[in-house]
Amino acid sequence: MNANVQDVVVLLGDSITEFGWDPHGLSQRLAQAYARKFDVINRGFSGYNTEWIIPVFEQFFAKSQDQAHLPKVQLLTIWFGANDACIPPEPQHVPLDAFTTNLSKLVNFVKSPDSPYYSPSTRVVLITPPPVYSKQWNETLVGQGGEPQGRSLDSSHRYAEAVKEVGKKEGVPVVDAWTGIWEAAGKVEEALRKYLSDGLHVNANGYADRNFGLTFGTQVVYDGLLKAISENYPAIHPEALQFVFAPFDEVQESQNRSETLIKRNAFVTK
Amino acid sequence: MNANVQDVVVLLGDSITEFGWDPHGLSQRLAQAYARKFDVINRGFSGYNTEWIIPVFEQFFAKSQDQAHLPKVQLLTIWFGANDACIPPEPQHVPLDAFTTNLSKLVNFVKSPDSPYYSPSTRVVLITPPPVYSKQWNETLVGQGGEPQGRSLDSSHRYAEAVKEVGKKEGVPVVDAWTGIWEAAGKVEEALRKYLSDGLHVNANGYADRNFGLTFGTQVVYDGLLKAISENYPAIHPEALQFVFAPFDEVQESQNRSETLIKRNAFVTK
């Protein structure tokens, strides 16, 4: 495989993350923004909650002693809550206190010097689950021949607030997708249709609105994430980085092409 | 970084590859198709030709002795010719015989047991450059305040034919983007506008055609690549693979969740 040539951004989450490879989805946008700087790795697992993700994390994130062989994770986004917030007895439900414990555990996997996965170069960002529009979600499920599910706007809100609390406690920035989308929708449930594809997932394909043109739930999250990076981790903002291999016009005009073609650090050194 | 959990697809090429992270671009489509199976790594370098890519390859592809620590490259696509085919004295021009030598060298980096980069698990696919519509490309350049460039349909055709010859000689399948797009355009230069965004790059955003609806140059290449995989390397067709971590309903319904959450091989074992 690729030698240790580009560092990476890892997006950890549930289906909302997994579907980020859709056109205009979060992974697609980040991969485009970080092209030739960092690679973007999607670790989204549809239907998973914070309980099930912990053993998965322990298998995909390299232990400290193995990290030297592998691209560095420069940014890890953790975006859970959508499934944890299912209302009991839904089997995906995780109680609120277990949810916050699990989130803290995920954060400390990389941030705690005592963790076998300690990765001091990894910057963490938490993302809150989006507001659920249960009427639209149940229409979707029933339309697919399924049963309505126990999900609610209130429950998604409680889990979003809990993510913010974990962010405060662990000293990690939070992108508040819940509030961003709720406010964009004018705090009107029916207007959430503009930002959600099915009542649960942020839309990427755009909802054509007579007054606002194309609106996208993903746009709210992408803009929030870039803002969080800019404010908290400006060194890894895409615009702060350079291409690992030089732009072709530098190669073309160089008197010493083989030297110009030597890989560089994406971080511009002064 | 990620431990050795998902193998990868590496897309090597020039700007036509680099821009594949656009919505509906080739990388985006492959990342979506291979989600939770293989990761997609874009190694597209705008403006590069086969001469400049060789030292780059030697820096980003792991040497044989280091490959065990890293995700396996299951598929490597090599898509060059667009810049090599520039007409002299354009500085990106690479003579046709040097172009074929370079392409063979890239193929043999991974296929030859004598190469330091020998990677027996890596399947290679070559892709021909798309047809150039020089009128449209020069409109684009001049529209951006630049000068017209020496590129032509005929030259792109000669380089596309050369890629097919290399494929035959090296025993590697070829996706003939040139012929696919030329035939889709009814062999009419002006109709190439439907498949190219600017006369040089395959379009991803779609060209709304009164008679055909949305047409995409990328679609032709994507369909050709999936067909080549299906015919030559069926084991790595996205539909032949399983998720590395189980679908959530298997986890949910399992009597032994921790066992169900152990990573699996993407290749389904009988």
TrEMBL record, chains A, B:
GO terms for molecular function: hydrolase activity. Residues 11-208 form the SGNH hydrolase-type esterase domain. This is SGNH hydrolase. SUPFAM superfamilies: SGNH hydrolase. Keywords: Hydrolase. Transmembrane segments: none annotated.
